[in-house]
Amino acid sequence: MTETVSGSVTRGGKRKGLKMKRIFTKPGVHPYDEITWERRDVVMTNWRDGSINFEQRGVEFPEFWSVNAANIVTTKYFRGAVGTPQREWSLKQLVDRVVGMYTRTAVENGYFASDEDVEIFDHELKHALVHQIFAFNSPVWFNVGTQSPQQVSACFILAVDDTMESILDWYKEEGVIFKGGSGSGVNLSRIRSSKELLSSGGTASGPVSFMRGADASAGTIKSGGATRRAAKMVVLDVDHPDIEEFIETKAREEDKVRALRDAGFDMDLGGKDIVSVQYQNANNSVRVSDEFMRAVDKGEQFGLRARLTGEVIEQVDAKDLFRKMAKAAWECADPGVQYDDTINDWHTSPETGRITASNPCSEYLHLDNSSCNLASINLMKFLRDDNSFDVASFVKLTELIITAMDVSITFADFPTEKIGETTRAYRQLGIGYANLGALLMATGHAYDSDGGRAVAGAITSLMTGVSYRRSAELAAVVGPYEGYARNADAHKRVMRKHAGANDGLRTLGTMDGKIHAEASKQWSECLKLGEKNGYRNAQASLLAPTGTIGLMMDCDTTGIEPDLALVKFKKLVGGGSMQIVNQTIPRALKQLGYQQESIEAIVEYIGEHGHVVDAPGLKREHYEVFDCAMGERAIAPMGHVRMMAAAQPFLSGAISKTVNLPESATIEDIEQVYMEGWRLGLKALAVYRDNCKVGQPLSAGNGAKKDETKAAAEPEVKVIEVNRPTRRRMPNSRPSVTTRFTVGGAKGYMTASSYPDDGLGEVFLKMSKQGSTLAGVMDAFSVAMSIGLQYGVPLETYVSKFVNMRFEPAGMTDDPDVRMATSVMDYIFRRLALDHLPYDERAALGIFSAAERTAQQRGEDPAVDKEALAQSAPIEAKAVQPAAPEPVREVKELTLESHQRFTADAPLCMTCGTKMRPAGSCYVCEGCGSTSGCS
């Protein structure tokens, strides 16, 4: 695509700069002119009450953009007040605003050899963006070309020293970053432990105590931003004397959540009492050394060291400390691990300082007080119709993106001067990709297979090799990064390590073989040019979660993740959605050699069942190609670890990815994942055990515990007389309400009858045809429950036992008060509680109506909200003639997880109510693009 033209810059003469070649565009034709554009209306409704919370009509997008992608860009990235002439209304305006700044800056700083090269850069960048071939990270779309500071980075690393001034600066700097919607990370290991003395003679507070203040600050700023959590990472070295306290902080807080909920406090997400729980605004990671991991492996002692002197002040059993890390992660998903020696062995700038921390999702790892701007490539755009990979275009596009990303550092603004100085001096970039999972499935590769890992490794190696080769070309034109001279030997050593890893990559097929062959050429050229010119960028690549921008590019999968499920939902123009089988599945089946008739039958089966097990005509050896992150055939935890290991040697940074484990996983399973991550050369690793953060069934409460304690202390025998219960039968004529519901695509009816004077006395459920096994089970359950109610079993006892019960079908419901249910029983008893229990009793169980949740978010007390109380009070009994039809509650049907045969353990979006999906260690909403953390 390019070549470097030597020579000084002269007026009217030849410039020293890059000579560009076209990839996708044609001379004399603007890229917008080759697209069919259409006008659409974007109307977003509030999931709580159906009111409109965003409306912009007549927006303009290419016809091939999905409704979802257009909605997200319109609501998230268009600038200007809605309803004013200044408001952007076309994707052209957005892309022109961003690319215009990049192009002007490149010209002003002499990046290109001629005006023709400038035009090619401008046109190719616009073509790639409007065709969803790649996307910059969110801050670029928010800020570039506006009157706001030109903030382009999503990832920041801060530094904290062992002084009060530095700690207070940390609070301030984090606040500024959070206010801008970005995230940061910090290592607190320089702060003296609570086991060390101050110069005044007193004992130090320790880093964990200062985490409380930072957590409270982050929570306050998050509240100011309404729904977005403050994304942050806190790291502590494994040899810090307070490491055990750090490991257990969040696990202890999870115990507090359960205890407070059992005591009747409102501990739901967004609840008024959840703010009393500490350390919830950060991801925690332990920075482990090779010395520690070897001690764990051998069962040896390990020394904890004083922060100022470095002397060992305490010896601990390494295996015991490692188990405490795994146990805490098993309980609450924190802490993760970062492998310190591996990270710094691949560090290009060690003469400047060690890498001590990361951004919130652990993919950006570099110097303290630095930042990184990201961009991600949509890999599916390079898959040709014959299922070959367009290597040449991928190489050219990577060159283009690296050039543009480097230009952005030249004009960018930063939240602090220290971050600005470091980033301009080292020019860290973070190119990555999305849609790997879809690419592997479409080409017939199982995600957890040698072939799948070979493809992933080859693509990653090619991407990073091209990026650093391009960086060396840029160094010849606009100079290497300022810190290169003092780090030249180390930087070139790391380049040789990457090239050596590429030499060791073993390919298995034609596709990965061709990609790897090109990667070898690129690394050879990279080493040669780097030796001559140096490098423009201290860092080039990483793998980010690609949450919102993945949706912007209509990607099926994010980052390095596999597909989440085989069945998805597609938004339709004019509202509503339809369930579709992933479009990669027919392509994969064709690649595997199936005929059209068989493909249609298999796709129809998947659409009905949500998985491929026993699909007609599908060979069992092909099942693995369609394995997903969740569902009937979920990829094993070590499958995720092995995929990360395949890509890691070819990345400057690390990988944002959470290794998901089933609820049945053990502490030993997590120990194995952490140990294998170290052995396989990963830089960072996080785990999440399904349902580990969900509230447990309610206990007897504090009073019961006190009674048990007293009984244990005074083992006296007491005779308690128990009156025999009597049954209070229902009258022949009684008021009742029938509710029609849908849970995870399964429809049913519930008839709840009450005594005329008050109180629920009978419940009947219907979910299948009469005579079926399910119908019989439901009838038997209904009779058993109804008899129990009539014998005086309180409804709240049933509710406490059956809410949170987890089995299929599960997922989204059509009830605005209960948007998500973990099972049919979970839905039924939540609905009964809302209809028949008073507010105080429901609050103790954590069950609230939509109106009550809305009141809580506004800071109001639902207990005194008359409208909320009216909607949540027990349904007033109305007499119904026995032969008359019963009233039926009608609710709009919306089943976003229908037929998927799993319940993703992810939160509901606080903006639109859609179930979010995992994106690295964060979550992203497919409905509106909101994220739970990183951009």
Question: Can you walk through the features of this model?
Answer:
With 935 residues, the protein is of the alpha/beta class. Among the domains are: 1-131, no CATH class; 155-345, Anaerobic Ribonucleotide-triphosphate Reductase Large Chain (Alpha-Beta Barrel); 566-627, no CATH class; 702-917, no CATH class. It is built from 28 helices and 26 strands. Helix 2 packs antiparallel against helix 3 (115-130) and helix 5 (164-179) packs parallel to helix 6.
Offer a few descriptive terms.
nucleotide binding; 935 residues; 4-stranded mixed β-sheet; 28 helices; alpha/beta; Anaerobic Ribonucleotide-triphosphate Reductase Large Chain; 39% helix; 10-stranded mixed β-sheet; 26 strands
Overall 3D shape: globular
Which structural class do you get from the secondary structure elements?
alpha/beta
**How many strands?**
26
The radius of gyration over CA amounts to 30 Å
Q: How much β-strand is present in the residues?
A: 5-15%
Low-pLDDT segments = 1-13, 223-228, 694-722, 865-903
Number of helices: 28
Roughly what percent helix?
Answer: 25-40%
Major sheet: 10 strands, mixed
Q: What is the residue-mean pLDDT, rounded to a whole number? A: 85
Distance between the termini: 31 Å
EC number: 1.17.4.1
Protein name: Vitamin B12-dependent ribonucleotide reductase
Domain TSCPD: 731-834
Domain Ribonucleotide reductase large subunit C-terminal: 153-688
Element layout with pairings:
Elements: E1 3-5, E2 17-19, E3 37-45, E4 52-62, H1 67-76, H2 91-108, H3 115-130, E5 134-136, H4 138-143, E6 155-157, H5 164-179, E7 183-187, H6 207-224, E8 232-237, H7 243-262, E9 283-288, H8 290-298, E10 301-305, E11 312-317, H9 318-332, E12 336-339, H10 340-345, E13 370-378, H11 391-411, H12 417-426, E14 429-434, H13 436-442, H14 450-478, H15 484-503, H16 510-533, H17 548-552, E15 567-571, E16 577-581, H18 584-591, H19 596-609, H20 637-647, E17 658-661, H21 667-679, E18 684-689, H22 702-713, E19 736-743, E20 746-754, E21 760-766, H23 773-790, H24 795-802, E22 811-815, E23 818-821, H25 824-836, H26 839-845, H27 850-857, H28 866-872, E24 888-889, E25 917-919, E26 922-924
Parallel strand pairs: 6-7, 7-8, 8-9, 9-12, 13-14, 17-18, 19-24
Antiparallel strand pairs: 1-2, 3-4, 5-13, 6-13, 10-11, 12-18, 15-16, 19-20, 20-21, 22-23, 25-26
Helix pairs in contact: 2-3, 2-11, 3-11, 5-6, 7-9, 8-9, 9-21, 11-14, 13-18, 14-15, 14-16, 14-20, 15-16, 18-19, 24-25, 27-28
